[in-house]
Amino acid sequence: MRVLVGIVGYRNLRDFSAPFAILEQLEATPPGQDVLLEDVSYNPIAVVQWLESEPPDARFGRVVFVAAVGRGRPAGTVTSWRWDAVLPSDADVQQAVAEAVTGIISLENTLVIAGYFKALPSEVVVVEIEPLDHAFGAEMSPDVQAAIEPACARVLELAQRRDALQQLPPLPLPRRDYQKTGGRW
Amino acid sequence: MCFKNLPVEFDERGQPFLRGGIPNPYAASTAPANVPLQLSAAQVEELVRRNGHIQSVDFDPVTRVAGALAFHAVADLKERRVLEARSVATLFRGYEVIMVGRDPRDAIYITSRACGVCGGVHSTCSALAIEMAIDCVPPPLGILVRNLALALEFLYDHPLHLHLLAGPDYSAAIVEPTNPSLFARAKKTEARHAAVHGYPTMAALMEDLNPLTGKLYVEALHMTRVAREAYVLICGKYPHPQTIVPGGMSSTITPTVMNEMYLRLSQFFDYSKKISCIWDDITDFFFEANPAYRQVGQRRANMIDTGIFDHPDHYDATYRNAAAWGDHRWATPGAVVDGKLVTTDLHTLNIGIEEFVEHSYYEEWTGSGQKQRFAGDPTGKPLSPYHPWNKITKPRPEGQNWKEKYTWDTAPRWDRLGMEAGCYARLWNTAVAQKLPANPFIESTGHSLKVRVPKGALPEMDLEWHVPDVWNAFERNRARAHCVAFTAMVALNNWLAVMDRMKDGDRRTSTPFEIPKTGERRGVGFWSAGRGYLTHHLVLDRGAVANYQIVTPSTWNASPTDRWGQPGPYEEAVINTPLLEETDDPKEFRGIDVLRAIRSFDPCMPCTTHIHSDAGVVTREVNTCACGVED
User: 10 Å Cβ neighbour count for B454?
Assistant: First the structure.
């Protein structure tokens, strides 16, 4: 089974760039030919188009997204959850597309758009790292820096162990961003 | 005389000068004549208090636009008209602040981040401003390749606007619930250009405009990929190019690159025929069904464009010769006032620009104790203290209410008039001015623009865009659609010119340069986004940026009401919009006509992302309207 480890984030944004540090560390010891490490921090429509261009017999069987997501947990907390693939309303999907084509990079939009266009496999996992410092710059805060190593270990486990997802209950997309259109189109 | 409001006259040689005998010629008290005025906040408050059917209608956020835009309107649902309209840019952009003190070359990469669609146009505009400031002239191939890069970027942008952002407003999914009788008519109305686009009825066409599922929506997603692939062949990546430099492009151009590009460019031949015919049919259908649709988004035909796509035989990167090289652009610069083209001279355009902040979250930079940095442009023509070269960006988000300040946008004015920007201004100027370089594909007639699109699967076709009698939301979209063919043929002309040069062995795409570390220098990038007008005004002091001012199309279009009460273009267009939606129930009111008016401008506010504030860095819009923040 081919596995995609895709990181989503912004560069030079201190703790919010933690996924890039995770990617660099993973690339230092490539996890095998069945695991592709990729920066997918770009227009989710283009991500969909890239995923769709993979040969049918070589499509990914599992995708592990990695992102820094602030949810008020202690800085450096590493969590993982399996997406239940339930999509928001069409109005919200449409808004996500509008954001995507106009330059917004976001984990939620990548999930929603790739999910809507059926570009994702049934096994989609998200590894989150809780950021603290939200400012321009290359350095991470100490707690987040210390969490890079365990985050890499968690990503590798999810990418390489076939049964790794059994421990993860499917969860819905966090509602934080997906009530924004207020039902309007 | 092209200026009606600024005290600028022209001598017998055509040189502008300030009219004598005026102690303070640019006094802000000099109001423009014969302009529409917005009701004052107090007048609107009184109307709302006395009439139950007059209500606030707020769109926060305005969806299906790029970035953080909110809109506040007060509508009379009985008379079905809008009484007050306020356009709100909800986030601070701040690139002008970020740029100060930096090496000017940083501008190419930093200002690109102003937009997630048109990063290339900001990079290019920066490069133009820098090369003007440091006297660096690109080689001919560099100019041609730059034209190609930006044309390809526009071919990403136009389908995006037409079928992903604005298009759904005309889809079955939206027309049927908001105007059922119109949709019933669409089912019985044959589409005039069915032979080109393949839709037998208007209803069938509307079905495929449906968001997410409609074939036109999905096709537009695909076409954005085609354009992007062509673009990255010469720009490295999209949306933030890596090959734009002062003095040209750092791309390596080979026959393989050009052939790969042509494969993609040629896919826009048939697409552009189809798109033009679709939007001709949509526009004609709505106007014939109800002539009141001509008033949706209607405003004075006041528009401005700097022109774009330079000619290698004329462009020399100097301000001194800007009027001459501007005239040889593939899209002619110009200002249109009340439907008349009043100038195509880049100097005249430049000296007529002012920015005001009366209703914006900024502090005035003029007034007592402030010295005007430049009294004139580099050729001695007079400049206002409110001109971008004199402007100082001083953020001050205080006094948040409709009477005082309500937006992060400024109010740019030309000759103190509210002008709008868009690719339609590009078409309008080019059609009327008749200054196009000789070529086999595009002809300007003085009242229209004819575009001959080569054979694809569809036969060769002559398309024609006519300067419209009434300026409104539908005409904006129709012009945008015709701009696909225009842009594709500009690209084809430049592609052919590149091939000709390569046959002669020319491979040089850039000129080496150094940033001088002494003295004060000025430059300005006159360029355009897919959406129209773009300028970057630059002041260098001993090699570092002393001032950097960006005016984008949406700076013009989303501008607030100015100090004289003249509404900004969105505001004016919404005030003129009749509410034709078929509902008498205020709870069911969806504001589709207002949204059509706003979206026809293709609002682009993402310049507001990636901004540093005390609270951190914003990487995604936060929409917080000032509605109800009255004190």
Answer: 16
- The domain tally of chain B equals 1
The CATH code of the domain that includes A44 is 3.40.50.1450
Where does residue B446 rank: exposed (0-12), middle (13-18), buried (19+ CB within 10 A)? exposed
Nearest-Cα distance to chain B for A21, in Å, is 19
**Cα dihedral B427, B428, B432, B434 in deg (nearest 10):** -20
Rg of chain B in Å (alpha carbons): 24
* C-beta separation of B210 from B173 below 8 A: yes
- Report the C-alpha gap between B235 and B145 in whole angstroms: 10
Instruction: Say yes or no for a CB contact (<8 Å) between A103 and B117.
Output: yes
- Beta-carbon separation of A46 and B228 below 8 A: yes
B460-480 as b/e: b if 16+ CB within 10 A: ebebbbbbbeebbbbbbbbbb
At residue B612, the 3 state secondary structure works out as strand
With an 8 Å Cβ cutoff, are A97 and B212 in contact?
yes
Q: What share of chain A is helix, strand, coil (3-state, %, to 5)?
A: 40, 20, 40
Q: What is the mean pLDDT of residues B137-154?
A: 97
CB atoms near residue B43 (< 10 Å): 12
pLDDT digits (tens, 9 = 90+) for B423-471: 999 999 999 999 999 999 999 999 999 999 999 999 999 999 999 999 9
- Please give the Cα distance from B305 to B349 (Å, whole number): 9
How many structural domains are present in chain A? 1
Residue pair B330/B324 in contact (Cβ under 8 Å)? The answer is no
Q: Among residues A40, A82, A59, A64, which one has the least CA distance to residue A2? A: A59
Residue A183 within a domain: no
Q: What is the pTM of this model?
A: 0.92
> Per the domain annotation, does B2 fall within a domain?
no
Residue A27 sits at the chain B interface (C-beta within 8 Å): no
Report the pLDDT averaged over residues A13-39: 94
CB contact set of B517 (below 8 Å; sequence gap of 6+): B542, B543
Enter the tokens of residue B343: 């100038």
- Chain A residues inside the 8 Å CB shell of B63: 91, 94-95, 98, 181, 184-185
**Residue B153 main-chain phi, psi, to 5 deg:** -60, -40
Looking at the domain assignment, is residue B592 inside a domain?
yes
CATH of residue B126 = 1.10.645.10
**Residue A70 CA: distances (Å) to CA of A128, B247, B275:** 9, 43, 43
Q: Residue B22 corresponds to which tokens in the numbers above?
A: 């005026």
- Structural domain of residue B497, as residue ranges? 8-362+369-393+414-618
Nearest Cα neighbor of B515 from B119, B134, B62 is B134
The interface predicted TM-score of the complex, written ipTM, equals 0.89
Alpha carbon separation from A41 to A167, B174, B293 (Å, rounded): 28, 33, 42
Distance (Å, rounded) from C-alpha B483 to C-alpha B147? 15
Which domain range does residue A163 map to?
A: 2-171
Q: What whole-number distance in Å separates Cα of residue A149 and Cα of residue A153?
A: 6
Q: How confident is the model over B66-119, as pLDDT tens digits? A: 666 777 888 888 888 888 888 888 778 788 999 999 999 999 999 988 887 888
Angle, helix B255-265 to helix B267-289, in steps of 10 degrees:
30
Given a cut of 70, whether residue B623 has pLDDT beyond it is no
Q: Which of A134-143, B76-85, B420-429, B547-556 has the lowest mean pLDDT?
A: B76-85
User: Number of residue pairs across A and B with CB atoms under 8 Å?
Assistant: 82
Report whether B38 contacts B564 (CB < 8 A).
Answer: no
Residues from chain B that touch A97, judged by Cβ atoms under 8 A, are 164, 211-212, 221
A53 touches chain B (CB under 8 A): no
Q: Do B239 and A181 touch (CB under 8 A)?
A: no
Residue in the structure block whose two tokens are 């990503």: A155
